[in-house]
Amino acid sequence: MKFLNTTLAGLLASAALVSAAAAADCEITLRSSDTHPDGYPTVEAVKSMAKEVEEKSGGRLCIQVFPSSQLGEEKDTIEQTQFGVIDMVRASFGSFNDMVPSAQLLSLPYLFKSEEQMHHVMDGPIGEEIAQDFDAHDLVVLAYYDGGSRSFYNSEKPIKSVADLKGMKFRVMQSDVFVDMMSALGANATPMPYGEVYSSIQTGVIDGAENNWPSYDSSGHYEVAKYLTLDEHLMVPELLAVSKVSWDKLSAEDQEIMRTAAKNSVPVMRDLWAQQEKASEEKVEAAGVQVVTDVNKQEFVDAMGPVYEKYVTTPEAKDLVKRIQETE
């Protein structure tokens, strides 16, 4: 085992040196952060973008992708990207809920009817409109990725109704919407960094969390939380953004190369996502996870009334939610 660890360390070190050497040959090297592990659909999508950018720029412009929270947890990397310390970040819309009002609306439970409808919303005029809201926060949105449908998982019991959630402690992203969602369901929200969830479930600090199939799998959370309830309460998009500080240093030609490559990375991500969802579902079910599908979803939807009343208050917000829900 010691030999294997030593060999692995050597390989990783060699890979890092090769990457550094490649970056040294580029006139401009942008660093892109992702909390997900290498091989995850979002990571691979940005890699495909990086390949296209390097090819179309003739090797002048390069993107180095740093997965597995190497540059920090999501909240931290967003702030660093705003200041230009990191050039690019892949993050969930949920992480912007308390920063960008339209992002908060996209995190409303049961807003989207399906992933296909979400694609139509984000790929169309509404998506372009929302992207502009990030300009004021020194972030230039390049692409929208999928976050899948998020469901509850826990270590205690199968959850089939709202009553089953009463008093349970669930990790959510640090967002008022998600905290209020849990309160409306009678549960206790515990915001914490993604990297702390496994040990917190294992030690009983929390009872569970909520996420999509690939994250439930890749994080290993299924090992300590064996009950998954497919209520699909959230379909929160993810975005790939570049720091305005870094963006303004690029020529118009390089900006266009970046935008095109980012757009082309979207179908790559979605195809990989569909494959990963299926593989993750098969993997966790084989590991003995109890998947609850007979959920009274309407009961969960009805419980969200107070959440919508709290966050959909202005005429602009009501109009945006209405247009999203009416998109086919």
From TrEMBL:
Signal peptide: 1-23
Main location: periplasm
UniProt organism field: Amaricoccus solimangrovi
Domain of life: Bacteria
Compartment(s) where it occurs, according to its Swiss-Prot or TrEMBL record: Periplasm
GO molecular function: carbohydrate binding
Name of the featured protein: TRAP transporter substrate-binding protein
Cellular component GO terms, alphabetical: outer membrane-bounded periplasmic space
Keyword tags: Periplasm, Signal
Biological process (GO), any one: transmembrane transport
PANTHER family: DICARBOXYLATE-BINDING PERIPLASMIC PROTEIN, PTHR33376
